[in-house]
Amino acid sequence: MLTYTLHRLLLMIPTLLGIMLINFVIVQAAPGGPVEQVLSKLRGQSSDLDSRLGGAGADTHQMQSSSGSESVYRGAQGIDPAFIKELEKQFGFDQPAYKRFIIMMKNYAIFDFGNSYFRDTSVIKLVLQKLPVSISIGLWTLLLVYLISIPLGIKKAVTDGSAFDVWTSAVIIVTYAVPSFLFALFLIVLFAGGSFFTIFPLRGLTSEDWDTMTTLSKILDYLWHLILPISAMVIGGFAKLTLLTKNSFLEEISKQYVVTARAKGLTENRILYGHIFRNAMLIVIAGFPAAFIGILFTTSLLIEVLFSLDGLGLLGFESAMNRDYPVMFGTLYIYTLIGMFLHLIGDLTYMLVDRRIDLAASRG
């Protein structure tokens, strides 16, 4: 196991570099970088000024444009080329792309993510501010998913082939096939001021008068805001764990020790919860890291955007829209590291709870 762990840790380095490089190349090729964002804002301000001056400002900009050289940036007409060069230097675009990538990865290796282009604060500070929101949403979802999936999976295994098993399987197939964000949109339309009811809040984790509330009111308000996003994530996330629980229990039920226990006259409940449960649940509990990865890195991101929850998902979305490269790549780096370590922990947990699993041998 030690050799396998060291191999996985070393493999993380080229994997991380590959992920960062691919995303870096894609982002560099995409139009509308941070320089364009600044120029666009300047053009918007100048256009507003031109309208107030009755077009006099437009003549001035035309004169500047005719005297300036052609620029590679859209919206640069009428902007002083020296100012554009200063912007490029400020954002680091005065260096070739490969040098920027090397410098970025050297800094990221010591967890120096720099400062946000547009938020006037460090990336690591932003991440530490937003991370608790994403983790809390993920943990709440994971707790409810386990509380629903384990009893349901056990019931399906005990009643395998019954009408209950068939109908619940149909529901599970639907929830597995439909993305969580579609369930979220459905809940918003139905319960959050859409065409039907206005029962739950649409945005944020707290109400505007949060600071004036009592402690109990704050707790209730927080839970009230969480109902819709957590419900959407649970609906979209419990199917896989339910099937894993069912299959794990079905495998244990068919084993010889269960037949022996029945022959000794033990009750079904005693056999199920005294013998089968502890063996079947090992593989389910071992899947906790993998389940957390799926919820935190896929479902949570879109849900945060839809419900304006101030977590890493919303931060990443806003950074991508604003082309805030330090925040984009910093959050990607942190997400990738967390994901790879949780995957490793999940694999090692599987190996610990079931000695028959030999990931090192399967790799070879």
Would you give an account of this structure?
The chain is mainly α. Helices cover 76% and strands 0% of the residues. The protein has helices at 2-29, 34-53, 56-67, 81-91, 97-109, 123-158, 163-177, 180-191, 215-253, 256-263, 268-286, 288-307, 312-322, 325-353, 359-363. The longest helix is centred in the middle third of the chain and has 39 residues, at 215-253.
Beta-strand share of residues: under 5%
Query: Separation of termini?
Result: 14 Å
Contiguous uncertain segments of 5+ residues:
55-70
Number of helices: 15
Q: What is the helix/strand order?
A: HHHHHHHHHHHHHHH
Structural class: mainly alpha
> In angstroms, what is the radius of gyration?
27 Å
Mean pLDDT score: 79
The count of DSSP E runs of length 2 or more, i.e. the number of strands, is 0
Which bin fits the share of residues in helices? over 70%
Largest sheet: none
Q: What is the molecular shape?
A: globular
Descriptors for this entry?
364 residues; mainly alpha; 76% helix
Summarize the structure.
With 364 residues, the chain is an all-alpha fold. Helix content is 76%, strand content 0%.
SSE topology sketch:
Blueprint: H1 2-29, H2 34-53, H3 56-67, H4 81-91, H5 97-109, H6 123-158, H7 163-177, H8 180-191, H9 215-253, H10 256-263, H11 268-286, H12 288-307, H13 312-322, H14 325-353, H15 359-363
Helix pairs in contact: 1-14, 6-9, 6-12, 6-14, 7-9, 8-9, 8-12, 9-11, 9-12, 12-13, 12-14, 13-14
